[in-house]
Amino acid sequence: MATSTSYIVQPELTRIAADLGASLASTSTAAGLPVLGYMFGLALLVPLVDLLPARQLVSVQLAVLSLSLALAAIATNVYAFGAALLCSGLCASTGAQMSTLAGKHSPTETRGRALGSVTAGISAGVLLGRAVGGGLADGIGWRAMLVIVAGACLVCAAGSRVILPGAAQRGAQPYLATLVAMPRLLRTSPELSVAAVSGALWFFAFSLIWMGLSLALAMPPLNLSPTVIGLYSLAGVAGIVATRVAGQLADRFGSRLVVFAGLALALACTLAMAPALSFAPLMLLALALFDTGLFAAQVANQRRVLNIDPLQPARFNSVYMVVYFMGGSLGTAFAGPIVSYFGWPAAAVTAVFALAAAGALYLMREPRRAGSGLSPRSEQGSG
User: Looking at the Swiss-Prot or TrEMBL record, what is one Pfam family this protein matches (predicted)?
Assistant: First the structure.
């Protein structure tokens, strides 16, 4: 639910711009602010999971998310609209906090399955947020849609207040000390640096493929409509199902094997997509398997990060997610120039190199003390 709020207004930008009396460019910029806020949330709010009771932290954050959406719904100008969305994006990092909690409070032998369940929810928010938001906005208007979503977030806040653990973490570093120490973790923890940089590389490939595909489908010779292009995103639903299975496999065989399998599948599908732009059946199948492979790799990789320090995993997960997110942002930024100047095949080939680099880095820089990666116990020992 929290993750979806960063995407729900995107299908209605033309109507929102008209209602606010703003240009489409400024409204589009405002609609992109939740993503910026989310990145700040990853760095500043996710570490709080190690310091504050989850029941208090998550419920308050979801309540503020609800209030932010309500303020966006009543905004009379684009500046107020953008400020409210920036705050909503900051609080939408609840999804990453829940991933940390899943790893922190689950038994080691089922940690991957628990993380896969939470990741499935986050993935559903990313994939379905635009579709649900657009459908509601078409039926009742974008302001009423935001009010309904705000109400749903408030229900989630009440539920988290009842369900989540209420005990505070003991022995954790002070908040400011944690923030200062986080950048050093990339240098002092080889496992974290390998996981973060390799994850950023495949998220770069993921974002490059999806953004590049949207542009390529809209350009000649296909010239597809936005509605038809949006239907391609439904192929990614297969990846949601894969996350829980990937978590179970990581629990049984270890994270490393699942990461390599996921990257190999994604790389093969990317190669298949390069010449398949005009052949929809092959493209949709390849997209579904592409998402399946990378979602599986993400669950297994994040499981490994959370195993580095099971007692205080939030700071490691925060650093990992910030680096990971930076890779995705670069992939989105490079998609337009690559497709515009060199075409869709060049975007696919670039993604192939990024995936291959991620696999090579994971293979060459893997700490030897982690063992072969086939045994979950070896990972526990490396943490």
Answer: MFS_1
